[in-house]
Amino acid sequence: MKRYFVAACLLLGFGCAVYAQVVDTTVCDVMKKPAPFNGKMVRIKGTVVAGLDQFMIKDSTDPNCGYQVNAIWLAYPQGTKGKAGAAAIVTVQPAHNFTGQYTPPARTAVTLEKSKEFKQFDSLLAQTHQKGADICLGCTRYEVTATLVGRLDAVADATLKRDAAGKIIGFGGFGNMNAYPARLVLQSVSDVTPKEIDFSKTDAAIKSDAMQASGGSNDLRGAIDASQKLASTFPAGPPQEALVKAASAYGKPSEHNGVNLSTGSTNETPDEALGTKDSPDGVLFNCIFNSERLPADALARAVFLIGSQVSELRHPKAGNEDAPAYFLENNAMVVAVVTGIYSNEKYLTLPGAYQVWNVNWPADQRNDKMQAALKDYLSNETMLSR
Fold first, then answer.
1. Strands (E), 228-381
2. What one-character DSSP code corresponds to residue 362?
3. Would 65 disulfide with which of 28, 113, 156, 193, CB 3.0-4.6 Å?
């Protein structure tokens, strides 16, 4: 009967959608063994977070699944033009001159139902938190629990494959740094329940300060140029080496080094075909910054964050070739925070209301407080573990 139905569609000259069975599952069940879910339509009740470099679904009842990555990356179909998403991301793609073997994945198209519930969902996750003298890096006002239906893309191992010299020769994974073994491409959303993130403690810590005059720029290239200048003036030592490496990842304005820069939405599924541009090592690093989520000084910090991730992925130190996402994210966040401190920022807060810098902290407690906040942020907000 099915073949006659398909034939009738062709004869009548219009497309008839054949809907796949929707599988009910949970975030943790997917993360336990992602590959068998690849290509399936699934229904998941989860909590969605739009963070600094995250747009992901965590389990609504058991957020820590016990793995290195405890969340599913969320993406809208291409052309959605949604407002929510990460503030900045980098994804890795084979360049036009990639010398390894690569076959673009064949995926069934997903059409998003732009219902009233989706519009509410997208609007809530796009609302930002910014107050007083605090620099809140990509902070959103809400996280949202909802029932999500979509196509699940998955791999057994999200680790980038490298040759003996450390060069990337194989791709896997989704989202920022290609670190997520699973991605949900959204078809529909329902049962939307927002939860406002409690920033009362961080707001109280800076309530006596007026808004700082911005020292940054909303111009991406200008922010990169400023980051390279700042790194060159930092006192000599290992921290400067990390800052220079991060700032240098973007290259010079006229240099075609395989790092593609753009501004705008980070929430749509990227092009998974072979790139149209060449790269010195056959790999493209596509960096997107949402300037609406990164005003001025926050953009300056995000430039260092993403630059550090690019440099760690492209030129890892010996022994760090297969470093987990927790390690890469931790190092990049330290670089971003250090540059904020060096730029005389009074306060720095991360999504989820984790304050990683407060100029009023006692000098002998600053390092411990920063490390504790960053550890909590990575495990509780980005859903990464050691």
1. 259-263, 283-289, 347-350, 354-358
2. -
3. 28
> Are 326 and 222 in the same domain?
yes
Tokens representing 259? 């790092």
Helix residue ranges, H only, 160-257: 200-205, 220-233, 238-248
Question: Do residues 207 and 349 both lie within one domain?
Answer: yes
Q: Give the Cβ contact number of residue 318 at 10 Å.
A: 6
**Do 218 and 98 fall into the same domain?**
no
Could you report the per-residue pLDDT of 150-200, keeping only the tens digit for each? 999 999 999 999 998 889 999 989 999 999 999 999 999 999 999 999 999
- Judgement on whether residues 105 and 228 belong to the same structural domain of the protein: no
In angstroms, what CA-CA distances link 305 with 169, 176, 195, 313? 24, 12, 27, 13
Angle between helices 325-342 and 238-248 (to 10 degrees): 100
Amino acid 17: pLDDT: 46
Is 0.85 surpassed by the pTM of this model?
yes
**How remote is the C-alpha of 25 from its chain's centroid?**
23
Domain match, 229 and 118 both: no
pLDDT tens digit string along 46-93? 999 999 999 999 999 888 999 999 999 999 999 999 999 999 999 999
Which residues are CB-neighbours of 354 under 8 A, at least 6 positions away?
A: 373, 374, 376, 377, 381
Residue 240 domain boundaries = 200-255+294-380
Task: Give the max Cα distance, the chain.
Answer: 77
Q: pLDDT tens digit string along 213-224?
A: 444 557 999 999
Same domain, 250 and 307: yes
SS3 of residue 43 by DSSP:
strand
Number of domains in the chain: 2
